[in-house]
Structures are given as C-alpha cells and as structure tokens.
Amino acid sequence: MEIENLAPHVQEVARALGDKLSEEEIAEELRKYVDVYRLSIPMAKKTIVKKYGGDSASFSVGFQRKLAELRPNEPNVDFVARVLSANDKEITSKGEKKRIIYGFVGDDSTTLPYTAWETEGLALSKGEVISVKGAYTREYQGRVQVNFGNRVSIRKEDPATIPDTQVADGPPKVATIGELREGMGYVQVKGRVLSIDPKDVTVKGEAKRIFSGVFADETGKVQFTSWSDFKVKQGDILKISKATVKGWRGIPQLNFDDRAEVTKVKEKFPSAEELQKTSVSMISEISARGGAADATVRGAIIEIRDGSGLIMRCPECKRALQKGTCKVHGRVEGLPDLRIKAIVDDGSGAVSVVIGRELTEKLTESTLDECMEKAKKTMNLDVVKDSFEEMLLLKVVTVTGNVTSDEYGLSMIVNDAGTGMEDVRPEVERLLVELEESR
Predict the structure, then answer these.
(1) Side-chain-facing half-sphere of 122: CA atoms under 13 Å
(2) Which of 152, 232, 390, 416 could form a disulfide with 148, with the two C-beta atoms 3.0–4.6 Å apart?
C-alpha cells in the first residue's frame, strides 16, 4: 500500500494517540496490520488506538469514512452523509409485517442506497445530515448498499456539515427500460416519449407543474414524472441522465428534475406505433423485476376464481356486493356486471388477472343480457361462473396490463385480452398420465 494512501488514516490515528507514537511509527503499524495480518484499514486503525491507549472518544469521530471507501460485506461502518431520499414501506418478514425506510445517502465522494431494517423511533427526512455508527454493508445489484440494523446509532447533524452543493451525484447506470428496478439510484436511459401530460400539483403548500407520461424503448415501457419543464413533446427521442427509479407496488417509475440531463436525440429509433406493440414477456422475468407497466403475457388459465361471472355492484361506489351488501353503503339494490378473476400460468410463473365486462364478453362471446337471462332461468348466479370455467379453463390467453406485486404475488388489471382458444387440456392430461406411470 502506498504511503500517500495511508496518510489521512495516519493523521486520524495520530490525533487519537496524541504524542504516543510518531506518524512514521503509526504508518509502520498500519502496514503491518493491513498487509501482514490482513485487517481492514478501519479495523487496523481501531486496533492501534486501543493497543496504545489512545483517546477512543475523539477517535470515534476520526473513524468516520467517506461513502466511496465502503466495500460490500463490512460488518461495522461509520460515516456522515446527507439523506437524499427517505421512503417508508411495509414488508412481510418471517410471516410478520414490519416497516422499513429506504432511499439514498450521499457525501462529496458518492451516493449509496440504504435500508433501515429497525425503524422504531427512527425518522429520516430528505435533506438532513446524519452521522451513522455501527451500520453494515451488502452488495445489491452490483453496488454497495448500506444497512441500518439493531446495532446502529444515528444522530442528526448540522445540515451545513455537508452542503447540498458538495454532494456527489455518482455515475449514472446506463440501462434499458426493461432493466429498470426500484431503488437503482441514478440511471441513464434512452427512449421515445409515447405520451406526456402536464399536471398541476401542490408540494409543501406550493403550486407546481409536473409532466407525466410514458417512455419506451424496444425492451419495454415505463411511466415517468418530470419535475421540471424540459420542453419535451410526444414523439421526442430522449437521452435522460441522472434520473432515479422509484416504484409503486413493484412497477418501476422514472423520476427526474432540474438536476437531470435531458437531451433530444436525432437518430434512427423505433416509431411510436412499433413501441406501442408490447412484446410478450415471461412471467418469471416480470416477477424478478417486481412488476411492470403495460406488460403482455401469454399463458393458460389454470383457475377461474370465486367472484367471477355475473356479479352485482354498488350503484354508489361500484364495489362488488357480497350477498347484496356493500362494505361502505350497506344493503343496496345492485347493478349487474360481468368479470373474470383468473390465474394465468405460462410455465415460468403465474399472475392473478382481473378482466372487466367488455373483455369478458369478448373472451366468452356472451353478453351481459345473455348471462342475466341464463341466471334468471336457473335462479342461480353461479351458473355463469360455471359456464365461464367450462369455456376457458386450460385455454391459452394473451393479456396486457400493468403488473403489480405484493405479498400475495403478481396481479394484473387487464386492459386488453385475446385468445386463440387453444386447448391445452389434452397435453396436461398426457403429462399427468406420464407422471403417474413414472411413480
């Protein structure tokens, strides 16, 4: 290890030891512990201070490191950083629901993602500066992630400790839209604007205009929100750098503001019409991403779920009634409707789908009036669900919509659907016979 790289660490140890060792002796000690005993520099510094009876209280300040110095799988790290974002999320861990906080922290060396796993009494806000003791690191999506566990100590510091202008942006990750994941940090993407609409919102009591729409490349589509007016128009081809990726129930969403670099690109690129044609995705790929916007999957309907067929809705809030009763408005005179709730499986995974009246009529080639007449003749609403089941079970369908994820798995509200009415029942029965014979 070169002496110039040791110099700042030597100076930190010297401040903690006073005149007990010279800087040359400290450097030799550091080299021994790092090169011979293979300790990390933080652990070597801590060992030297303890060995020679230094002022551990003053050294605790000097032990803080820059974020760029952190490496994966370190069990104990201390640093000072500015909170760049703080998001609350409820997750299920070991069968129990718990709250976590996640986002990004930054100093003048880099930015890193963090997750706080123990949040009782913890409040983090964007813009504040914190000193952290006892965090640990892991590697996530190819970069260091900082974790706050049950041994961490977090203290609020004067915001002037790290001026906002000194926080490093960090190099953006170049990605396709299909590669976007929640919490990736700064990214650079290129694509075509399929739609854009201005919206007036209120942020911290102030009126602000934002721009929302859909951005696409050959690998997929993503919803975006621009917090600044970059004079973008529908159809523009853009290269966006220093955007961040947030998420809603697993669906990645692209966000950028005046710190981003938005450049209009003039080059050959698929047309809006070509990009609107969503290619079929494997359910396993969507599951790995945690969700997707405007995704298309093709698979067999392996289950028609309860709540399918002819249902009654509340005339006020449109909720489906349970035994003539709305959860909000009580007992009401329901309005008839059709829907299909099903499980679609493509062999790589499964997604729960909800198909509304118009598409249900298309798939079943039956109208609401015909279904009502059938139920009236038999005095049984379930006859409609039974007929849907007989008609669609184990048929192959192609469905398109936003795919969200939660603790129960993937779900899609279908906005387009079709079927070639290919029946996979014979193939399934053949496989079952082969399985039985192999036992």
Answers:
(1) 23
(2) 152
